[in-house]
Amino acid sequence: MRTWTRLALAALVIAGSQIVHAETTARQSFLVNIPRRLTIAAPPVAAQAEMDQDAVQVALPAQLWTVASNARDGATVRLSTLQSFHNLADDTIRRDAELEVHIQNQSESGAWSVSTSSATTDHLSGQEEASVELRSTGPGTAEIRLNVTMRSSEDQFTPTGDYVTTVVGTITAN
Q1: CA 87, CA 94: separation in Å to the nearest integer?
Q2: Is 115 within 8 Å of 77 (Cβ atoms)?
Q3: Which of 14, 43, 87, 162 places its Cα 20 to 30 Å from the Cα of 173?
Q4: Residue 118: CB partners within 8 Å, gap ≥ 6?
Q5: What mean pLDDT is predicted for residues 32-45?
Q6: Is 60 exceeded by the pLDDT of residue 128?
Q7: Residue 143, CA atoms < 13 Å, CB-side half-sphere
Q8: Alpha carbon 160 to its chain's center
C-alpha cells in the first residue's frame, strides 16, 4: 500500500507543478483580406435627342457615369464606341460619333485625371472606334460626365430614321 500511496503522491506533485507554470499571456492574430474592387456604372436609361432641321450635328444630353477603385496604384477607365452612329433601318448609312469626357466630381484621395479628353470615329476611313480615357493614382471614386455628339459634314444630307451607337466602359487596375 505504501507503493500506491507514493505513486499517488508523486502524481499530485507533477500535476501541481504544471499548474504553477501556466502561461500569463496569450496572443492571437486576426487577418482581414480586402479583395480588389473595381466598378463602373453607366446611367440606366439610354440617352436620346432629335436633330434640328438645319443642324449638321446633334449633341445628346450629358451622361454621368460612376467609377470606383480600391486598387492601391489607382485605375484606368476607358470609354469607347463599338461603332459610329448607324441608321437602324439601313446599317450602311453612318455618321461619326464624337466622345468628350470631363470629371464631374471625385473623392479627395482619388486623384483622377483625364488622359484622353475627346475622340471621334471616322466611318469613311473605317475607324469605328473612338475612345477617351481617365486615370487615378490611388483608391477613390469619381463621377464622369460623358458628352456624345453625332456629327455630319456640312455637305452630307442625313436621311431620316433612328441612329444609334453604343459606348462601352471598362475599368482596370493600374
Answers
A1: 6
A2: no
A3: 43
A4: 98, 99, 100, 101, 132
A5: 92
A6: yes
A7: 7
A8: 36
Exposure class string for 137-153: b at 16+ Cβ within 10 A, else e: ebbbbbebebbbbbbbe
pLDDT attached to residue 139: 93
Mean pLDDT taken over the chain:
88
pTM (2 d.p.):
0.81
Position 78 pLDDT exceeds 70? yes
Question: Domain map of the chain by residue range?
Answer: 37-173
pLDDT at res. 6 = 61
Determine the Cα–Cα distance for residues 45 and 8; give it in Å rounded to an integer: 84
37-173: CATH topology is Immunoglobulin-like (2.60.40)
Question: How far is 163 from 159, CA to CA, in rounded Å?
Answer: 10
